Please model this.
Amino acid sequence: MQYLIKRLLQTIIVVIGVSIFAFGMTFLTGDPTEVILGDGADRMSVEEINEFRVKMGFDKPWYVQYFDFTWKALNGDFGYSFIRHKPAYEVITERLPATIQLAAVALVISTVISIPLGVISATKPHTLIDFIVTMIALVGQSVPSFWLGIIMILIFGVYLKWLPISGSGSWQQLIMPGITLAAFSLARNMRLTRSSMLDFFQKDFVRTARSKGISENRVVYIHVLRNSLLPIVTAIGLQMGYLLGGSIITETIFGWPGVGREIISAINSHDIFVVQAGVMMLALIFTFVNLIVDFVYAWVDPRIHY
Model:
């Protein structure tokens, strides 16, 4: 319970820091009143502009505005999108399922492929298979996601015409953005699994298990892999937050109707309330996932004490 309370307090501090950052974005481009009104400010009188500023609360001191922003955010009110003509919260929540779907697919692809390849590489070190797997991992970590996405569109979408190049609604439209988003995490988790297992293969308890005549498969999967899971679980947990936040580029390339693409569109149209809502929502999900990962540690490795 003491650890639980400590982690919850740390999470609250992180959320407060993110709220300060999200609120500060209001003033990055100058007077938020002029940013929101855009070209419409040229057709308004000074009195009308000042009236709008007072209505939005931009005439108050910044710390008063911050507490107003925080209180409204706690109640699910992130302001009104004058571009989409609906509350900013609704704009983001409508796009959130698509982002979660894409991130979940990328997480499954990364986990299902990376761990088995990492195990194969660790059990056959310094062989041709290990060399091939290591090269795949290095390439996966080196290739930028936007370049990989464009190449996949050209090969599988334009030339071969096997897969649709944009949009959503079918499993075929998930394949290319899912692989593009998963590529970096797949390569990292593969290398992490390999290095972690190689370290445990040198431990005394593994040599003892082998000397007792325990089968090699049991040694690999029960004694080595399970003890190697702690850093892998950490990476996978952090990866979920990365996939949610890092999907901005992938969603833009493939025209995926998620939060990332909506944030980019809101930035281009100076829709600051939608940007704030998107940043806050993704940050809350990221911190919550990290909290769950910490609680999973004890189940993965009973030797851990808080």
Summary: The longest strand covers residues 80-81.
